[in-house]
Amino acid sequence: MAIDFDYLVNESSEAKEFCEAGIKGLCLDVIDKYWWGIIIEVIIFFLTFAMIGIICDEYLVPSLEILCVKLNLKEDVAGASFLAFGASAPEIVISIITTIQGGDNVDLGIGSIIGSGMTGLMLIPGICGMAAKRDLELKRRPLTRDVIFYILSLAGLVLFLHDGTIYPLEGVYLMLVYIGYVLLLVFAPMVRRTYRIKNHLIDPNITTSFINNDGMDSDEERSYEPISAMADLNEDLAYEESFNPIDANTPVSTSAKMRRGAKSVTGAFTAFYTKYISAPICWFFRHVIPACKHGTESERLYLVTFLVSIFWVAVTTFIMGAVSQRWVEMIKAMGFSASVGTLIGMVLIGFGASIADLMQCYAVSVKGYGSMAISNSVGSQILNICIGLGLPWFIKGMISGHGVEIPGSQIVQKAGFILAIGSLVLIAITLGPALIFKENKCKLGKVKGLVMIICCFVGLGAYAVVSIKG
Questions:
Q1: Angle between helices 409-426 and 446-469 (to 10 degrees)
Q2: How far apart are CA 299 and CA 306, in angstroms?
Q3: What CATH class does 21-469 carry?
Q4: How far apart are alpha carbons 436 and 210 in whole angstroms?
Q5: For residue 17, how many other CB atoms are within 10 A of its CB?
Q6: 255 near 377, Cβ under 8 Å?
Q7: Coil/strand/helix, residue 387
Q8: What residue spans define the domains of the chain?
Q9: Per residue in 216-266, pLDDT tens?
Q10: Nearest Cα to 413, choosing from 68, 166, 123?
């Protein structure tokens, strides 16, 4: 029997009897009363992850890379702004959607951001440390900078959740933290160079290389260049130089291009995934999203590619959110805490959206290039909180005039505390020894990596207990 969608959208009582979830819930309550309906929802949920990953990797990130080149952005600025958005698009979009919908849905968006934070701050660094053949060396100053700004954003998040309402000015604070972060990336290298010239620490007529140059910051001052520009000349060289900041002679690309290294990790599963899942999805998107590549005629389509990619990310994220929200409703109907939405967001969306990143980071860490993966992972979390939460909270608060209500804010706040503890663990085992012994590099090895992984799952387990019990 054909379904009349006009009937489903109708807000009459008869329509609600047929489809209680409504159009924003994709009428999933019609099918999930049966076992096969649950299976369909699970398939849809994981297909949306695959679709979002393909859109971001093949269309969104390449279009943003071209935009960064057009704007002549420095690598750090490009990585912290447009490219970070490309990597964090699913979490940010679902946060925007759930904030607009309001009610219990807001918890789901916050949970996805916090779950992504736990992955980026603890799980990914831990896996990189465990997988690396020798201790990873992280530059102390960039890591210190990123951690400080992340603490500022996380502290604001935890404090603002205390009274259960987020006001527009609180959203402004988060956005200002991010603006300050980007401004620091833009102007700090120039300030340091000016200081060194005035104090005769460097020769202003010498252009420094960033090879084995711990004291200089020329790598921070380079303009961004997509890896494709190098890959066309020598694919192996481009890959190696992109993830080895010590030995490289050419510009370094971003973590969005780590997928080449992940090929050796997966094996048979990758073959199955590519043939039966990825290939059909890629075929579909090739017909609905114009491709663009730096250095080719298609480069001029980058704005169209960007806008169409954002549209499809929004569509697939909406579907993912609808399935997640339906599962939250079903779990609450079983008698569990109303704040379980945050837990679902953390586990299914925050962690789930990071699976591809985890595989890629593991692959490059095995090859000895995990330091860049960690730097990009930690830095992107600032965008997640400041823009992923701050921007929709500000807009919704200004429209409603009374702020954004956060259901179960006290329990959600505890998730923020757990994430804060994770940040302190990262500081204690990486920055702490470097600051105490006045070393230029922070070291992360197998033992420290294992500690971070354990802390991640202990924190998640602790929050699961608190969330379920209410």
A1: 170
A2: 11
A3: mainly alpha
A4: 26
A5: 8
A6: yes
A7: coil
A8: 21-469
A9: 444 455 555 554 444 443 434 333 333 333 333 333 344 444 444 444 444
A10: 166
